[in-house]
Amino acid sequence: MTDESGKVGIVLVSHSAAVADSVAELAKALSGGGTAPVRAAGGTPDGGFGTSPELIAEAAQAVDRGAGVAVLVDLGSAVLAVKALLAEGDELPDGTRLVDAPLVEGAVAALVTASTGADVGAVLQAASEAYDYRKV
Amino acid sequence: MSSSEPAVDDVLDTPFFLRWLTAAAAAVSREAARLTDLDSAIGDADHGTNMQRGFAAVAEALEKEPPGSPGATLILAGRQLISKVGGASGPLYGTLLRRAGKALGDAEQITPQQLADALRAGVDAVAQLGGAAPGDKTMLDALLPAVEALGGDAGSFAAASEAAEKGALATVPMLARKGRASYLGERSVGHQDPGATSSALIIGALTEAAR
User: Fold this and answer.
1) CATH classification of A9-130, choosing from 3.40.47.10, 3.40.1010.10, 3.40.50.510, 3.40.50.150?
2) What positions does the domain PTS EIIA type-4 occupy (chain A) (predicted)?
3) Is there a contact between A80 and B88 if contact means CB atoms under 8 Å apart?
4) What is the layout of strands, in order, in the sheet containing A9-14?
5) Is residue B190 part of a domain?
6) Are B179 and A83 in contact (CB < 8 Å)?
7) Is the ipTM of this complex over 0.85?
8) Residue numbers of the domain that contains B91
9) How far is A34 from chain B (nearest CA, A)?
10) Average pLDDT over all residues of chain B
């Protein structure tokens, strides 16, 4: 049983359920057994491609341990869906934040950082810094 | 053109708003194939089905639990759109209606000018959420002229509807700067924006609700 208490939760949103699920698995594998709670919210509830605020809200509630939730997204409606949910005020747990980060690299950085017990601000920063890891 | 329109001092009650959204749902359903066709040219070919699903959920929710005020009606509808649509249009239209609904507060009857002001607040929120500006080939290109034409002494639903239609048509030569269509660059030119088209349908439904 991993110790998830007091850790920042991570939600991974993609237009594709397969992408979101795989990025969650990948992040867990690459984070050396990250202990922060992570949940995928990919595709629509009927299994199609798209984004579902319902699935996003469910995932955020599921990973909330009282320390905030970092939501990473792919593009387009995923960004808008999370922003709209945040604007609602009561749809997502307190301390939920949209992370400005690339999905895959950001997910790994966020999970590693959250697993150390870092606060939500540190998790956001670590994920955002993934933009600076140039590949060429 | 506007002789059969209600005078600007007419009051709009909750049943008016229920008629509006029901008419909007019917219009979206009727034109779903066309919206998807437009979206297949410059987007991902799901706008019609997404909007149809969202507005069907709106109609169902309003029938099941009719809200007690115009504001509550728009807020409930917006909430349904945000959660049910599955594409970017859900958060955008949901924000439009929710923000407009919040602006109306608890009033049981409102004036067309108050509706114009509330929709203006909603359109501003949409612009902020999506980061789009007029001329970017988005729903704003239909909505902004519509709210402009709805307000003021000469304002009417017919004028708003006409302005929205014109605004949607005016997106044809525009270069898309937001959303998936923006990836196409110059190839987005020559196609009518699906979001501006559905916006014109929703604004057009106001004239049906007034009858």
Assistant:
1) 3.40.50.510
2) 7-136
3) yes
4) A38-42, A9-14, A69-73, A96-98
5) yes
6) no
7) no
8) 12-205
9) 31
10) 91
CA B172 to centroid of chain Cα atoms = 18
Q: Is residue B102 within 8 Å of B157, Cβ to Cβ?
A: no
- CA-based nearest residue to B186, from B194, B196, B176, B195: B176
The partner residue sitting opposite A54, judged by closest CB among B50, B83, B92, is: B83
Burial code (b: 16+ CB inside 10 Å, e: under 16) for B122-150 equals bbebbbebbebeeebbbbbbbbbbbbbbb
Answer whether residue B151 is part of any domain: yes
Q: Answer yes or no: are the C-beta atoms of B150 and B189 closer than 8 Å.
A: no
Mind telling me how many Å the CA of B121 is from chain A's nearest CA?
14
- Residue A40 phi/psi, 5° resolution? -90, 140
Chain A residue numbers touching B53 (CB-CB < 8 A): none
Q: Taking the domains of chain A in order of start, what are their residue ranges? A: 9-130
B123 near B140, Cβ under 8 Å?
yes
A6 near B CB under 8 A: no
Whether the pLDDT of residue A104 is over 60: the answer is yes
- In-domain check, residue B3: no
Residue B2: the pLDDT is 46
Across B160-177, average pLDDT = 95
What pLDDT, on the 0 to 100 scale, is given for residue A5?
83
- Please calculate the CA angle A23-A68-A21 and round it to the nearest 5 degrees: 15
Reported as a pLDDT band with limits 50, 70 and 90, residue A81 is very high
Q: Which CATH number do you get for residue B70?
A: 1.25.40.340
In the chain, the amino acid numbered B103 is A
- For residue B5, being part of any structural domain is answered with no
Mean pLDDT across chain A, nearest whole number?
93
